[in-house]
Design brief:
This protein has 241 residues and is an alpha+beta fold. The chain has 9 helices and 10 strands. The chain has a 6-stranded mixed sheet. It has a two-stranded antiparallel sheet with strand order 1-2. β5 and β6 form a beta hairpin. The longest helix is centred in the middle third of the chain and has 26 residues.
Length: 241
C-alpha cells in the first residue's frame, strides 16, 4: 500500500473504473482541479489522478474522504453479475437495424478513399452484424499489419481527420500518421474510425448487409480481443436463456 492509501498493484476492475468515473464527474461538476480536491481530502494529487483512471484502488477510507470532500457519499448495493448491461442491451435490440444501416453507410463512404485497401469489419459493428445486441457508436476495421503503408495513405487522404490524443483524451493535436505511437483512432465528420492491425489475417465471414456483401471478422476473434463486447454477448445469452 502506498502512503496515500492506494493499493499500488490493484487491477483495473470494473468497480475501480466506475468509482473513478464517478469521482471525476463529481469533481468536474464542483469545478475543482485534482490538486484542489486532494487538498480538501488531505491526500495527494497523484492519488486523485490514479483513482480517476481506475488503475489504482484506494482504501475505503480514502474513497469516503474524497467523496465527502465533494459533499457526496458512496452507497453500496449488489445486483446480478453484468446486470448493469440490461438496459443498454434492450435499447440495442430495438435500435440494431438502424445503427447498422447508419454506420455501415458511413464506413462505406470512408472506404471510398482507401484505394481498395483489404479490410474486415471489426469491433462493435462486426459484433452487431453477427447478432450481439450492442449499440454501434463507431466504425471499426482490421487490416493486415503488412498493409500499414496503404493504411497510412488512406488516413492521410481522409478529409478533416483528427487523431485521438492520449495525453489530452480528445481528438486534437496528435500526429495522424498510423506509424506514430498511440491508439489507432481518428475522428472524421462521418464517424469515429478505429483500426486494428492483425499479424495473422482471418478468414472473413461474408455477410449481406444493406447494398451488398461485407467482409466481417469472425465473432469469436472479435470477442476475444474486446472484453466489453464479450460481457455484452455473455449477458445477452443469459437473458435469452
Amino acid at each position: 500500500m502506498s502512503d496515500d492509501g492506494a493499493v499500488a498493484a490493484a487491477p483495473a476492475g470494473r468497480l475501480n473504473l466506475r468509482l473513478g468515473q464517478l469521482l471525476r464527474l463529481e469533481r468536474e461538476r464542483a469545478r475543482l482541479s485534482q490538486r484542489a480536491l486532494a487538498a480538501r481530502a488531505g491526500t495527494s494529487q497523484q492519488c486523485v489522478s490514479r483513482f480517476e483512471t481506475g488503475f489504482y484502488a484506494p482504501t475505503t477510507a480514502v474513497v469516503e474522504r474524497l467523496f465527502e470532500a465533494l459533499g457526496c457519499q458512496v452507497r453500496a448495493d449488489v445486483e446480478a453479475l453484468d446486470a448493469d448491461l440490461d438496459e443498454s442491451i434492450a435499447v440495442a435490440r430495438r435500435e440494431r437495424d438502424d445503427d447498422i444501416r447508419f454506420m455501415l453507410g458511413n464506413l462505406r463512404s470512408l472506404l471510398r478513399w482507401s484505394g481498395g485497401l483489404d479490410y474486415v469489419i471489426d469491433g462493435e459493428l462486426a459484433a452487431a452484424l453477427q447478432g450481439v445486441p450492442v449499440r454501434v457508436t463507431r466504425a471499426d476495421v482490421a487490416v493486415a499489419a503488412a498493409d500499414l503503408p496503404r493504411l497510412t495513405d488512406w488516413i492521410f487522404t481522409l478529409p478533416n481527420c483528427e487523431r485521438w490524443n492520449e495525453w489530452w483524451r480528445d481528438f486534437v493535436g496528435a500526429d495522424r500518421d498510423p506509424n506514430r505511437p498511440g491508439p489507432l483512432r481518428w475522428w472524421t465528420p462521418l464517424a469515429e474510425l478505429r483500426v486494428r492491425l492483425l499479424e495473422t489475417w482471418p478468414t472473413p465471414v461474408p455477410l449481406v448487409a444493406g447494398a451488398g456483401e461485407v467482409p466481417v471478422r469472425p465473432l469469436l476473434d472479435v470477442l476475444r480481443d474486446d472484453p466489453q463486447l464479450d460481457r455484452v454477448a455473455r449477458r445477452a445469452r443469459a437473458l435469452g436463456a
